[in-house]
Specification:
heterodimer; A: mainly beta; four-stranded antiparallel beta sheet; 0% helix; 49% strand; B: mainly beta; six-stranded mixed beta sheet; five-stranded antiparallel beta sheet; 57% strand
Amino acid sequence: DTGVSQDPRHKITKRGQNVTFRCDPISEHNRLYWYRQTLGQGPEFLTYFQNEAQLEKSRLLSDRFSAERPKGSFSTLEIQRTEQGDSAMYLCATRKGAVNEKLFFGSGTQLSVL
Amino acid sequence: QQPVQSPQAVILREGEDAVINCSSSKALYSVHWYRQKHGEAPVFLMILLKGGEQKGHEKISASFNEKKQQSSLYLTASQLSYSGTYFCGTEIADTDKLIFGTGTRLQVFP
């Protein structure tokens, strides 16, 4: 499989717990993006990486959210002290370069915070 | 900063046409279009770069008016498989990120 891979597909957690999601990009894709999507809404930009450098983080993102991309390969998104409002689909997307390159999306991680 | 799409929802019979619009308040470098089916990830349809080009993909085409900061997606002779939610994604010059629009839900019935 040469697509973008996300793990886990589903995560159910209790409020206050920490969760971590993983995204494995398509090989040679140096741009990696995290989006959050709630029902009926468009994907909301969270953060992105060029190789291992995190270039931008949405100002809507609280300090409870952190992302890493060590060595410019896979990426992890961690949410600390989860809240019910964090329940959403978390999508990872990657592309080879910038601007005129299309995004390839993973299947997402559906987070439910009880 | 989020682009606005119109209409919010469209209901069609097979064979009918539809137009989905995407409008931004920022100067755009490019516009992407994606379709998402329920429970699935968005799938790429096409990219339009500044310059007012129009592109086609089977019976789906799009235009990009750079001056008006608008793009339109044209679906011709719709098929059942066209059902889903359509999102435009806009890139502002000198940025490296795609901001997605509010979405348009399209339903095609036999």
